[in-house]
Amino acid sequence: MSITSCWELLSVLSKVLIYLGAASALGGAFCLLNYSDGKRATLRHILGLHLTGALLGLHAVAAAFLAQVGTASGSGLSGAFDREMAGLLLGTQLGDLSLFRAVGFAILIGSGLSFYQAMVKRTRAPSRLFYQRLFAFNAFGFIFLLLSFRFGGHVSVQSLSVQFALAVHFTMFALWVGALYPLLTISRTEQVAELKVSLERFSTHAVVIVSLLLLSGLTLMLSLIHSTAELFTTPYGIALTLKTVLVVVLLGIAAVNKFIIVPRLLLQTDTAQFQRSVSVEIAVAVILLLLTAYLSTALGPASH
Fold first, then answer.
1. Would you tell me how many other CB atoms lie within 10 Å of the CB of residue 156?
2. What are the pLDDT digits (tens) for 61-86?
3. Which pTM was predicted?
């Protein structure tokens, strides 16, 4: 494998960790606010996931920047630590992008630590205000991650409306995918009736989230692909088509959960079927993230 390919691979993996870190913080807080079972163990587990994701995200920002320095210097592993090249790139849009993402993840780390400590000191179950504040702080940090897209990527050179569509798309992705593992955690309960209420609430929210995800995704696709032929004749178009297929698979799994599995929960106490379904959804989401990171790093629309 060439040095260039190694830096490209590091860039792709870094983006996956950045996306997962953002989703774990925003989606986790969203899940706690709307679907939490109120147990300290659940809160501790999801806050731990939030902190882990944010820490990995911050390290991934640094790794992505070093990969770009290494690519630009073209001198092997040591090139990633070329101070002169790093200084030059810090003065470009790449530097602005990295700075916004670093600030965003620093806020998410601070939020996770602060609320984890507050949870440890509490003797009673957290109030709804606790969850509202957690979500507000995480949303504030997430805004910096959204703003970073203005400084890099295929959409950064598009109109403000397309950039807004990307912001909506990424936010809806984070709310949906970021809530999957927390929901899996919450589903490990014997209180099936209460779980069903939470899952029905999630299904209602998911209709809005998925609708906005699809609408914004279609807007982005139309801005990057100028003919249907590109979807089958260019590497970027083929990858985008595959991404669309994976999204449809996710929607199919979500529909099965909403219309079949969740209504059955009151008729049986076994939540294993729901847990298996969500596990498959998480696996598909990870593949989708890998493909998305590859699309935005190694491939590009023909017009770009």
1. 15
2. 999 898 888 888 776 676 777 788 88
3. 0.85
